[in-house]
C-alpha cells in the first residue's frame, strides 16, 4: 500500500479550487524553489496521518487559506488516497475501501477541520477523520489511525538529539520493535548469578536489577545513600511518615515498565572506524544518516503499519557524495531488497544532486502553488524520453527543477557567454531565477517536454489541468550556411566540386532551400525537409510555455559576428587559439595584451579585405573550423571582452546582438501568469 495522492483545499497557499498531488511508489521528490508549497504538502500529509513520534499537531490560524481579497477560509479539507493495497491491506481496512474508476479497491482518508463558535463566543476547531472520497464513509477508529501513522524527519533536524536518551525517545521505539528485546531470564534476588554465563542469560530488566545490586554495594554509593537517609530525609520526615531513598537505575513496578525505562535511557552513537571508540568526532551529516537508518528500520519492523517515510531536505548537512549514497540506499529499501518490505519515501528537496537520482516519473514539480507530477501520461515525454533522461539528467541539468525560467542550449559557448550577455543588457539570469541547461547536440526536445503537460488527461478528482507557468526558452542553431561558406571553410574547392551533389553531404546552404521538395534532388535523404520548412521543424514541438528561438542565419558564433560583434568574436577566437601560450608565458598578462593587440590588427586587415558583412562573418567563423579555436574557451574570452566594452552600455550592446538572442532572454526573464 502506498500514498498515491493527496487533495488539498483551503490549506495555507492552496485555496478552495484545490490542489491534487499525485505520488508514485518508491522514492518521490517534491522539487521546486523556495516558498512554492513543498512544506505545505508535507505538512498536509502529516496532519492527515499523524507521525510515529507521536508529535502533537496543533492547527494554527495561518493554516487556513487567506484569499487575495483577504478572506479567511472557515474550513480545511485534506484527502489522502492509498493505492496498491495488498491482500492483507484489503483485509485490514475492508470497511473503509472504495472502488476506483478502474475497479481497483482504494482507501480514501479525509481529514477535515472546521472553525466552530458557540453561543458564548467560545471558538475551537472541530476535526474529523473519515473514510470515503467525499468523507461519507465510516469514521476512522484509533487503532486504524495508529496503523496509518507515517515516519517524519523534519528539516534542519538535530539528529543527535533525536537519537539521544529520553522519555519516549525514537531509539526506544526502534528497539522495542525487536521481538528479542524482552527475552532473557528475570533476576532472582535470593539466587544471584554466579558466573558470566548466568549474567548473560538475564533479560534487560534482570540485568538492570543485577547492576543495581552491584552498584548499591559500592562503598561510595552506600555512603551517599546513608548520608541522604540519616542526615537529611530522617530530619525532614514527619512522625510515622519516614522517607527513605535508594539510588537506582529504573524503578518500574514490573518488568514491562522497567524495560521501557531502560530503553529510554539508551542512546545511539557512531563509532570511529579505526579504533571502534565513540568520542564525538562525527558531525550533523553522519548523525543524520544514522537517524534515517533508524527510521527505516522502524518502518521495516512494523509490518502492519503504513510503510511511509517523509523527509524534508534530506540533503541537510550532507555533501554531494553522501547525498548520492543516501539515494542509492533509499532506492534499495523502496524496492524491498534484502528481504525488507517495500517502503515509500517522499522527500522535499532543493538539491539538484538528489533530484538527479530520483526517477523523472517520480518527481513532482512544485511551483507557484501548483504541483505537477512528471509521471508517464502526465507530460508530453515519450517512453524513450524517460529512458534518455534517466541516463543523462545529471546534477548539473537537474537545477531546471528549481528555476523560475529555463534556457536550454546546445553548447558550452552559449552556456558560458549568455549569462554575461544577459547581465549586461539588464536581464541577469541569477536575479530572475533562470537556469541555463546545456544539453549538447542531442536531446534538446527531451528536456523541454518535461515542462509540457497532457492537458486533456485529468486525474480523478483533480481540478482543471493547467500548463506549467515557467518560461522555457530553447535556443538552437539554424544550421544553414551562407552560399559562400563551403568554399571559405574548405568544404569544397569550387562550384564544380562533386561534393556539392554528394548524397553524403552533411551540410546545407541557403540555396538548398529552393530544392527541398524536389524528388530528384540527389541528397534528399536525411536532409530533405519534405513539405515543411526548416523553421517549422525547429518549432514543431513548441507549445504551452515552451518556445524555440533559432539562429537568424547559421550558428551562435556566426550570428554574433554578423549582427555586429565580428571583431569581438574574431579576437576571442584568436585568444582561444593562443590560450596555452598565454598561460605558459613568463608574464601571462603581458602576453594576453600582446595577442589581443595583434588579433585586433589582424581583424582590421580582414575587415578591409572583406567589407561585406556576410563574407566577413564567414571568415570570422573560419577561425573555429579551420583555425580549430575552442568555442568554449573563446566564449570565456569573449565574456571578458564584452565586460570591458559594454558595462553600463546596455543599449549599445542591444544594438549589436542577434534578434533571436534578445527575444529568448526577454522571454525567459518574463513571468508567465497565463
Write the layout of secondary structure elements.
Elements: E1 2-9, E2 19-22, E3 27-31, H1 38-49, E4 75-83, H2 87-92, E5 97-99, E6 105-117, E7 123-131, H3 142-147, E8 151-153, H4 159-162, H5 170-175, H6 196-200, H7 204-216, H8 219-236, H9 255-264, H10 284-301, E9 308-312, H11 320-334, E10 344-349, H12 352-357, E11 363-367, E12 370-373, H13 383-392, E13 405-409, H14 412-424, E14 434-438, H15 444-448, E15 472-476, H16 485-488, H17 534-538, E16 546-550, H18 556-577, H19 579-584, H20 588-609, H21 613-625, H22 631-646, H23 650-655, H24 659-668
Parallel strand pairs: 3-10, 3-11, 8-9, 9-10, 13-14, 13-15, 15-16
Antiparallel strand pairs: 1-2, 1-4, 4-6, 5-6, 6-7, 11-12
Helix pairs in contact: 7-9, 14-22, 18-20, 18-21, 18-22
Number of strands: 16
The gyration radius over C-alpha positions equals 35 Å
The oligomeric status of these chains comes to single chain
Q: Report, as a whole number of angstroms, the end-to-end distance.
A: 37 Å
Please tell me what the overall shape is.
Answer: elongated
Structural class: alpha/beta
Give the overall pLDDT as a whole number. Answer: 85
Strand content: 5-15%
For the largest beta-sheet, the strand count, sense and barrel status come to:
6 strands, antiparallel
Helix content range = 25-40%
Number of helical segments? 24
Uncertain residue ranges: 515-532
Organism: Arthrobacter psychrolactophilus
InterPro entries: AAA_GajA/Old/RecF-like, Bact_Antivir_Def_Nuclease, P-loop_NTPase, TOPRIM_OLD
Keywords: Endonuclease, Hydrolase, Nuclease
Domain OLD protein-like TOPRIM: 401-453
Amino acid at each position: 500500500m502506498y500514498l498515491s495522492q493527496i487533495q488539498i483545499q483551503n490549506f495555507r497557499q492552496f485555496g478552495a479550487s484545490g490542489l491534487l498531488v499525485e505520488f508514485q511508489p518508491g522514492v518521490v521528490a517534491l522539487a521546486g524553489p523556495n516558498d512554492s508549497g513543498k512544506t505545505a504538502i508535507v505538512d498536509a500529509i502529516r496532519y492527515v496521518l499523524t507521525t510515529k513520534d507521536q508529535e502533537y499537531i496543533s492547527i494554527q490560524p495561518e493554516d487556513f487559506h487567506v484569499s487575495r481579497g483577504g478572506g479567511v477560509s472557515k474550513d480545511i479539507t485534506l484527502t489522502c488516497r492509498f493505492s496498491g493495497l495488498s491482500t492483507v491491506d484489503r483485509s485490514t481496512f475492508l470497511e473503509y475501501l472504495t472502488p476506483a474508476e478502474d475497479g481497483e479497491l482504494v482507501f480514501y482518508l479525509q481529514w477535515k477541520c472546521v472553525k466552530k463558535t458557540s453561543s458564548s463566543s467560545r471558538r475551537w476547531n472541530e476535526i474529523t477523520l473519515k473514510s470515503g472520497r467525499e468523507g461519507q464513509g465510516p469514521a476512522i477508529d484509533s487503532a486504524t489511525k495508529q496503523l496509518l501513522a507515517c515516519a517524519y524527519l523534519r528539516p534542519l533536524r538535530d539528529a543527535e538529539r533525536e537519537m539521544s536518551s529520553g522519555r519516549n525517545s525514537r531509539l526506544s521505539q526502534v528497539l522495542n520493535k525487536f521481538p528479542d528485546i524482552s527475552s532473557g531470564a528475570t533476576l532472582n534476588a535470593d539466587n544471584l548469578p554466579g558466573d558470566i554465563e548466568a549474567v548473560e542469560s538475564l533479560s534487560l530488566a534482570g540485568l538492570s536489577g543485577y547492576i543495581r545490586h552491584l552498584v548499591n554495594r559500592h562503598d561510595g554509593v552506600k555512603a551517599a545513600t546513608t548520608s541522604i537517609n540519616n542526615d537529611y530525609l530522617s530530619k525532614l520526615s514527619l512522625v510515622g511518615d519516614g522517607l527513605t531513598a535508594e539510588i537506582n537505575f529504573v524503578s518500574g513496578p514490573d518488568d514491562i515498565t522497567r524495560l521501557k525505562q531502560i530503553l529510554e535511557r539508551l542512546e545511539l552513537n557512531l563509532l570511529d572506524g579505526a579504533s571502534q571508540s565513540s568520542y564525538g568526532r562525527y558531525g550533523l551529516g553522519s548523525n543524520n544518516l544514522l537517524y534515517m537508518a533508524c527510521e527505516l528500520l522502524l518502518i521495516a519492523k512494523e509490518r502492519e503499519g503504513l510503510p511511509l517515510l517523509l523527509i524534508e531536505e534530506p540533503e541537510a548537512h550532507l555533501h554531494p557524495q553522501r547525498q548520492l549514497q543516501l539515494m542509492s540506499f533509499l532506492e534499495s529499501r523502496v524496492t524491498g531488497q534484502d528481504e525488507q518490505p517495500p517502503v515509500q519515501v517522499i522527500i522535499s528537496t532543493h538539491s539538484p544532486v538528489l533530484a538527479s537520482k530520483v526517477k523523472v516519473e517520480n518527481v513532482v514539480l512544485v511551483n507557484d502553488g501548483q504541483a505537477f507530477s512528471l509521471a508517464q501520461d502526465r507530460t508530453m515525454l515519450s517512453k524513450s524520453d524517460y529512458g534518455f533522461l534517466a541516463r543523462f539528467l545529471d546534477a548539473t541539468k537537474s537545477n531546471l527543477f528549481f528555476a523560475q525560467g529555463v534556457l536550454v542550449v546546445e553548447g558550452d559557448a552559449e552556456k558560458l557567454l549568455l549569462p554575461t550577455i544577459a547581465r549586461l543588457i539588464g536581464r541577469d539570469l541569477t536575479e530572475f531565477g533562470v537556469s541555463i541547461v546545456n544539453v549538447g547536440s542531442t536531446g534538446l526536445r527531451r528536456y523541454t517536454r518535461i515542462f509540457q503537460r497532457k492537458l486533456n488527461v485529468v486525474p480523478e478528482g483533480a481540478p482543471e489541468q493547467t500548463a506549467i507557468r515557467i518560461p522555457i526558452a530553447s535556443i538552437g542553431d539554424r544550421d544553414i550556411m551562407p552560399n559562400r561558406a563551403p568554399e571559405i571553410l574548405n568544404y569544397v574547392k569550387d562550384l564544380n566540386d562533386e561534393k556539392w551533389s554528394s548524397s553524403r553531404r552533411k551540410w546545407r546552404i541557403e540555396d538548398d532551400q529552393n530544392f527541398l521538395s524536389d524528388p530528384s534532388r540527389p541528397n534528399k535523404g536525411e536532409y530533405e525537409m519534405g513539405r515543411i520548412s526548416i523553421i517549422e521543424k525547429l518549432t514543431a514541438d513548441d507549445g504551452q510555455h515552451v518556445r524555440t528561438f533559432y539562429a537568424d542565419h547559421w550558428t551562435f558564433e556566426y550570428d554574433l559576428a554578423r549582427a555586429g560583434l565580428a571583431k569581438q568574436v574574431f579576437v576571442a577566437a584568436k585568444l582561444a587559439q593562443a590560450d596555452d601560450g598565454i598561460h605558459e608565458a613568463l608574464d601571462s598578462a603581458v602576453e594576453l595584451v600582446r595577442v589581443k593587440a595583434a588579433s585586433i590588427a589582424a581583424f582590421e586587415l580582414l575587415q578591409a579585405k572583406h567589407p561585406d558583412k556576410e563574407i566577413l562573418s564567414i571568415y570570422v567563423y573560419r577561425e573555429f573550423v579551420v583555425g580549430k579555436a575552442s568555442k568554449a574557451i573563446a566564449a570565456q574570452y569573449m565574456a571578458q571582452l564584452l565586460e570591458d566594452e559594454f558595462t553600463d552600455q546596455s543599449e549599445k550592446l542591444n544594438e549589436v546582438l542577434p534578434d533571436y538572442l534578445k527575444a529568448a532572454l526577454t522571454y525567459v526573464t518574463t513571468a508567465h501568469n497565463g
